[in-house]
């Protein structure tokens, strides 16, 4: 539409220029009769009116086209913004999907690691139980010291083997399968002295998988105390100890992340709550 209007306006402007060259008055004076002059004047009025209307229409068309162009640019910008937003959302979705896949993979790895850890703990516990059973069968009853007091008579009055903070409750879940704590973890400075809680004889002093350097004292009547994850052992198998006798030092052997003493009390192989026996 704009191109055709441009052609028409160009034609009209050339015609107007030619008329301007001749001069309106000259054209009128060349006419031979008043009727011819009147027709010429009417023609001029019609011509210039039509030309003005054409120019006005052309300008309106230009304005409309400018408005359409502005709207088109705005729509293009909006479309570009929407496209960029969609691209950003797609990238965020892909990133979220990748993170979720990584989280799932990490969870699967963690589950496998937990399963492996649980199986290892179960093997370690089984090995400890087998050791205690073999010790129980190998113990030979010998004459006890004259000042010996039965282990059971000291319930609730024995001193903890090391001055430390208790990190768990007896029987609490270990967070792996159905395993529960059969003793107490006592966090203390590495190298702290560990002392026997009662009269007894050392029946095991060696390394055991899962327990590190382990020392076991037999107190008679089926009672035993166990001291695990030591840094060093100060007594050997067969030696007698009294309450308060240094038997080992606190360490982190056997896979602990920080120094601690793992302490158990057992009766005929069954774990007992140390809190009920020590103060």
Automatic annotation (TrEMBL):
MF GO annotations: metalloendopeptidase activity
Gene3D superfamilies noted in UniProt: 6.10.250.3150, Glucose Permease (Domain IIA)
Superkingdom to which the source organism belongs: Bacteria
Pfam families named among the record's database cross-references: Peptidase_M23
Protein name: M23ase beta-sheet core domain-containing protein
Organism expressing this protein natively: Haliea salexigens
Key words, A-Z: Coiled coil
PANTHER family (UniProt xref): MUREIN HYDROLASE ACTIVATOR ENVC, PEPTIDASE-RELATED
InterPro entries: Cell_wall_metabolism_enzyme (IPR050570), Dup_hybrid_motif (IPR011055), M23ase_b-sheet_dom (IPR016047)
Every M23ase beta-sheet core domain range: 181-274
Keyword field contains Oxidoreductase: no
Ranges in a coiled coil: 69-141
